[in-house]
Amino acid sequence: MDELTTNIAKKSGTPIVFYHRRSFYRYHGRDYDSIGVLNVALYQARLAAPNSEIILLTDETRPLQLDVKQAMIDEYSESADDFKKDYVHLSVLPFEDFELNCYLRWFVMRDFTRRHAIQSFCYFDSDILLFAPVERFASEFRGYIAGNWSWANFVSQPEAIDLLCDYLHNTFRHRDQLYALAERNRYLRGRAHVNDMRMLFELPKSNGDILDQKDFPWKGFDHSIRESEEGLYTMDGGIKLLTRGDHGMWVAHRNSDGVEVPFLLSAFSGLVKIPHGPVCMETPGRQPEYLRRSAKCSMSLHVW
Predict the structure, then answer these.
(1) Taking the CA atoms of the chain, what radius of gyration do you get in angstroms?
(2) What is the pLDDT of residues 194-221, one digit of tens each?
(3) If residue 198 lies in a helix (H) or strand (E), which one and from where to where?
(4) Rounded to whole angstroms, how far apart are CA atoms 70 and 18?
(5) H or E element in which residue 172 lies
(6) Against a cut of 0.70, is the pTM above it?
(7) Residue 206 CB contacts under 8 Å (≥ 6 apart), including other chains
(8) ω into residue 275 within 30 of 0, thus cis?
(9) Ranges of each domain in the chain
(10) Which residue in 23, 66, 68, 263 has the most C-beta neighbors within 10 A?
(11) Contact assessment for residue 154 and residue 146, using Cβ atoms and an 8 Å cutoff
(12) Measured distance CA(257)–CA(280) in Å, rounded
């Protein structure tokens, strides 16, 4: 691994940050091949965004056969450790380590980008597949300092990641606000609960500098490959139907008028990663083939 310097983001494009902790990725008590999923996401990001620095914040550095900078999470955990002191587990999921890390990643990103003087960056979960230069995604945030998605976001300035972290931490410090927010979510699961995703969804209501990303699926930025976006897109079994468009781009099919919408990123969230792992977009004109718990893929898709 190259020695990290203050000026870490040397490429001309917008930096891309991934956060991956192996214990972070367990569902219903079952492990899956999180490294395999991560490998596909990293290779796909490098293919789609050759001019972007790709940074992996991780608990396990390892040899990679591609240009990715790796940094150990524990070396950037000062503000994360401070947050831990005020954290209480209010998720419907019983996996406290998973939910806690959903919050901690923001604080680790803040400490990392501060130390290495990164002014702006995109953050993607390690189950996000990127199919276009990341600037296409970042351009949607004009006039805003950041968005409210926890799995795919653009941070336009250091003050933006400060704002996100301060909002999360202050909500936990003020227990009345925290429990009130958890109570507002009762209708979703039949019990009061909160997680970082739901907490960030609330932020645009009180801060006009934060973009509400609710319309992003209409523009080809996926919320979840498992969902039709309230009937917006055609499904194929349990996932969105994606086929190759005439221009070579993967497209989803809008139910209302049949329009093909180019997909610029796709989110393989939750249980769709078990047992199959991510998809390899390499077969023109047909639904992508699943790879069974494997990241051995030629990655020969066209990008926008």
Answers:
(1) 19
(2) 999 999 999 999 999 999 999 999 999 9
(3) helix 196-202
(4) 10
(5) helix 158-173
(6) yes
(7) none
(8) yes
(9) 16-218
(10) 263
(11) yes
(12) 28
